[in-house]
Write a structure and sequence with these properties.
Blueprint: H1 8-17, H2 21-31, H3 36-48, H4 62-73, H5 78-85, H6 89-92, H7 97-104, H8 106-118, H9 133-151, H10 154-168, H11 175-195, H12 199-213, H13 215-227, H14 229-249, E1 258-263, H15 266-276, E2 287-293, H16 296-309, E3 311-312, E4 318-319, E5 332-338, E6 341-349, H17 350-358, H18 362-365, H19 379-390, H20 395-406, E7 411-414, E8 420-423, H21 429-436, H22 438-443, E9 444-449, E10 452-454, E11 466-470, H23 487-517, H24 521-530, H25 544-561, H26 568-571, E12 575-578, E13 582-586, E14 592-595, E15 607-612, E16 615-620, H27 624-632, E17 636-641, E18 647-656, H28 661-671, E19 675-682, E20 689-698, H29 704-714, E21 716-722
Parallel strand pairs: 2-6, 14-16
Antiparallel strand pairs: 1-2, 3-5, 4-5, 5-6, 7-8, 9-10, 9-11, 12-13, 13-17, 15-16, 15-17, 18-20, 18-21, 19-20
Length: about 725
Amino acid sequence: MKENSLFLEQLIEQILACKNVSEAIKLLFSLCERSEILDKAVDSCVTSHAGQYRKSGEPYAIHPILVASIVANMGGDESMVIAALLHDVVEDTDVTLGELQAGFGDEVAKLVEGLTKIVAIRENKLASSDSNEKLASSALTFRKMLLISIEDVRVLVVKLCDRLHNMLTLEALRPEKQKRIAEETLMVYAPIAHRLGISSIKNMLEDLSFKYAMPEEYAKIDSYLNKNKQQLSLKLNAFNEKVSQILLENGFIEGTFEIQKRIKHYYSIYLKMQRKGISIEEVLDLLAIRIIVQKPLDCYLALGNLHINFNPLISRFKDYIALPKQNGYQTIHTTIFDNKSIFEAQVRTYDMHKTAEYGVAAHWKYKNGEGSLLNPKLDWLNDISMQNSENESNVEELYEYAKDSLYIEDIAVYSPKGEVFTLPRGATALDYAYEIHSEIGLYAKEAYINRVRMPLLTELKNGDIVRIVTGEEAKFRCSWINSVRTGKAKATIRSFCKQKIRDINYKMAIDILKSVFNVSKDRILEWVESENLGKKVFRAATDSEYLQEVANMLKKYIRKERPFMISLGDKYQIKKQKFENIVIYSNHKISNVEFDYCCNPKRGDSIVGFKNGHTVTVHHKLCERAGKLMDKGDEIIFVKWTRNAPHRYKILLNLENRKGALAEFLTYLARLDINLATISLNEANDLSGDTFEISVEIAENIDANEIKEKIKDRYKIIDFVSQSDPYHN
């Protein structure tokens, strides 16, 4: 491949200017060395796709040729460029993998096979934007992509280049398709680009997707920046000049450093607004510069110059050179004040810049400097592979795990030996334990943070030194799944809890049948064995129809034992008894249902009911007290939640920072007949207001949009989303 220094933005301009096949071929060969086999691949691409056209009306072959151009610019080897040229031929034409293998070799065939298998949810298969199918679809894409990539990460890089070109030409599609593809890009492809360290592609995918996925939010930011463009540019240019002058006067020679200036990416501005609960007018650091120097030591010299000459905002200082992110990213981040304006400044070397822009691909593109480039850690791919073997049946869980594994790592913590672990913001000491090894997490009994004994669920801060003490027995609790932050911790706890739930369901099913027939547990086990139900009977704890089916099967045994009983059918007939939140299936008359104080189960939780006379007490299935009652032999009865569940919504709002403001708001919610489920306070840097995140339950018969408007009239709402939409969880 040719050595090129085209920034992605420059390449994109050239790509958008290509209107026919010959222009696309010309661009490709300006980026890579021409060869006989590459010529053959271009011919094969053009011939195979002859007569096919894109939605824009252009010949289809333009697409794979331009994808190959992006791959070549990323430093891809010849096999990758050929795979990019031929990535659609197996799927969209008569060409077979065998023919590709014969014509272009095993390596190319394997890459194309990987790309074909991904079949990134095709346009016509995409679930609708507001559909619950969306999560499952995205999860399937994740699984296919990641598992194929474990064998060869180059497949992912080509796929990202393919998706980038698709996003550049998205305007030719119908608005609903634009939105769906953009949403999938934000959920699947941008996080993968981030984890591979390819920030140039990640940033571009995010901004392109943001435009189509959230057009209103995009338009607000775009309008503000365009309106203030001149003023912002003047500020940025003046600051750039100042910094350049300071560096030249303090140890740097012209030509040994470069300063890049920019207004922040649209999507990162939007995320900041969401995170802090502020409007774009309140985003202080819209402007950023990047200083690129020659040696790591020069980074600290440049940083010293910035901090001596400007006031730094120390809370925003991060040194990723000393503590690199897991994706190989190394840069110093600081935020500084200048003349009433705030600027973000990044400092990195040219090598660090290559790693940041190209990530895993930097090693192919800059082979000579391989020793000085930091390679992203790809352990997460193997973790996802392990996770997949346990989650064949539940792609949503795999998706959640992958999502947690792919998104931004924000804090660095140390082991007592000084090893560095990068964890997401909000991670606990227990997350750290699972990060070391799943066994350490399961057997963890206490944590020492900076030598002080702390609970396992203590949230970690950047720079903490953490030591985990393990016990002889597994100490995990299933309730912890909502408190841990990493995919690894959640997945391991969930896997163990599933097994625990299965064991409890078996025990419950036997006890429920024992209650129905009023016989000993041994007798029920004997009958279940006789009917060969041992492996299925656990379903009787959760499936009311199956419970009745099993009860009907077992009636014959009681008939044999009690032949003189009259109206046997009625006595063991399981009837439905409905209460406000709970439905009971039993042959016993129940007059009252109550919830025990110890575990406070919420709608949707797994539950168990204990009969005491004509009253049933409901517990969470994993409640310790419930476990003791089961062991004691208390009578169990079949219970489940009613179907008419209220809808849950998450509201992010800003309240005035004054006494009684929260109480007033909660009183107002009560007047609107809205039930508060959870509430949490988000930290805010300003003193003018506090940002709260609340979960509320709105009954089916109440219009949520009406409620939203009523609250909007009185309070500053930042976000109002349904929690039944998995996209917004």
